[in-house]
Amino acid sequence: MPEEDFDIFEDDSSNKESEEKRKQRRSRELGDIKKILDIPEGRRFIWRMWGMTGCFKASFTPKDTNYTMFREGQRDIGMALLQDVNLASPYAYAKMKQEYTSELLADKKKESK
Q1: Which among 68, 46, 49 is positioned nearest to 59, based on CA atoms?
Q2: Is residue 26 part of a domain?
Q3: How would DSSP label each residue in the chain?
Q4: Residue 22 belongs to some domain of the structure
Q5: How many domains in the chain?
Q6: Which of the four, 7, 43, 81, 101, has the lowest number of CB atoms within 10 Å?
Q7: pTM to 2 decimal places
């Protein structure tokens, strides 16, 4: 069969297999994130990534469209991570926020002494 006549979407069984592999890969990815979220160090790392990507900040930079677009790209990565965290462990974000807030309060108490 000539190469130009080959259609990768022609064989339904190969598409089905590809879809199954995609589902397995996605399941493994979410399982990896869940494992990371199971340990405090992993939760702190993800929290830092959200801070570095500006996930919860506005991307707009007055008079600098290029920097706005750059920051929006960073933010998009953080938002994708947030979506994966929520899919892997729906209550993880709340737990991480509580841990971060507790850590801030403890640091403030130490500073005031």
Answers
A1: 68
A2: yes
A3: --GGG--TTS-HHHHHHHHHHHHHHHHHHHHHHHHHHTSHHHHHHHHHHHHHHTTTS----TT-HHHHHHHHHHHHHHHHHHHHHHHH-TTHHHHHHHHHHHHHHHHHHHHH-
A4: yes
A5: 1
A6: 7
A7: 0.80
